[in-house]
Design a protein that fits this description.
174 residues, seven-stranded mixed β-sheet, 5 helices, 7 strands, globular
């Protein structure tokens, strides 16, 4: 054997595969990560004091109203909190065009002054899943919040609103 054959090569390092949500790709694959949730067709709407606006930070609990707030699962920890809502809105694209295909609302109490808040994380996760699965869970919203959400959806894209299921329009009082 020659000297060259005797030298040992360092073992190849295997690339670590990380577990992560697939938030941007719409490619289907069957390997590692198959079955991850595709959040690219979901938007976050915040309803605060009767005003609805899109806030992409809500996807990671960093919306305008959530920043700097310490959350508790105990409602009593936030006696002076104002009611805010996160609405998960899923958009579906078909041959006819895009539409609002799922929407679910989750309540939060926010006390900005005390920097305290209340929300049930499990409900937020479940309702996000329901929106992705094209369900509508908007019963808890009040009349003012429903009107604000409807106005935002219509003004954002009237064609999407027109193509949306009647179930959404009925839920928002059309």
């Amino acid at each position: 054997m020659s000297e060259q054959d005797n030298t040992q090569q360092p073992p190849e390092k295997k690339e670590k595969k990380s577990l992560a949500l697939n938030v941007v790709s719409n490619k289907e694959h069957k390997g590692f990560g198959a079955g991850t949730i595709d959040l690219s067709a979901v938007s976050c709407v915040i309803i605060d004091n009767g005003e609805a606006y899109i806030d992409v930070g809500a996807m990671h609990a960093k919306s305008k109203v959530e920043r700097g707030i310490k959350f508790s699962a105990n409602k009593e920890d936030v006696p002076n909190g104002r009611l805010c809502w996160i609405v998960w809105v899923a958009v579906d694209r078909t041959e006819e065009g895009a539409s609002y295909a799922g929407a679910t609302a989750c309540p939060m109490l926010i006390d900005t002054e005390a920097r305290r808040g209340w929300k049930i994380l499990a409900q937020h996760v479940n309702n996000l899943d329901y929106a992705i699965k094209r369900r509508f869970v908007l019963d808890e919203l009040g009349v003012e919040e429903k009107q604000a959400l409807k106005n935002l959806l219509v003004s954002n894209n009237p064609e999407w609103w027109d193509r949306s299921p009647d179930k959404l329009k009925e839920a928002l009082g059309v």
